Amino acid sequence: MKNLRIVLVVVFVVIFNAQFSNAQKKDSLMYQAYLLSSESLWESALNQYSSDVWSLDKAVAYYGLLNNTMVHSNEDKFDEYVDQALDYLEAMEQKGLHTAEVIAMRSSIYGFIMAYSPWKGMYYGPKSSDAIESALKTNSESSIVKMVSGISLFYTPESFGGDKKAAVEAFQQSLDLYEEQEYDGWLYLNTLANLGKAHQAVGQNQEAIKVYEKALAIEPNFRWVSSKLLPDAKSSK
User: Fold this and answer.
1) Which of 188, 193, 162 is nearest to 176 (CA)?
2) Which one, of 199, 185, 85, lies nearest residue 143 by Cα?
3) Distance between CA 158 and CA 111 in Å, rounded?
């Protein structure tokens, strides 16, 4: 009996380590896709998940891929995946899986749609606002929800409820939550970059520089920060 228990423990450890290693590899691919702003890597990251998988990581991969199209203004690639992404997020919500996070990402994707097609703002603007409010009511202590809340506050015009000072607070809260979770993946880097941008937008250049330097201390190859955001902040001092 004792030997059987030992065997079962060993099997459990092997399975757990394999699953953990696989999860790390998937997150690592998204991390590299983000750093390199690579559409092909984002597609590879998404394609790691089979069609019948329902997970937050797959939802995040969809979100990351669509976010990356904004970097290159690749509307064709966005159009290729946006309906798939929204269908997936809505199915996750219906299944009650990571509800707050998938609602928040849906809100952000509505923002992407408006960025590509401003004339759709009358329809998607209220949908985006309602979604992020719902996400915050569902779980205001989610790092992803706080991050998306910051993005919404930062990019929404003040006349429609935007508030860049409040965005600073939301991004900082998101960072604090990520750090409590000891998560330093691409969403953490993205939040650092956005926090720096929000500091700059309210005239807090020294704070922005500190945030960017922190980002580069964590990831020296973060070129968006090293070649664009940090030099801009320093030139604005």
Assistant:
1) 188
2) 185
3) 15
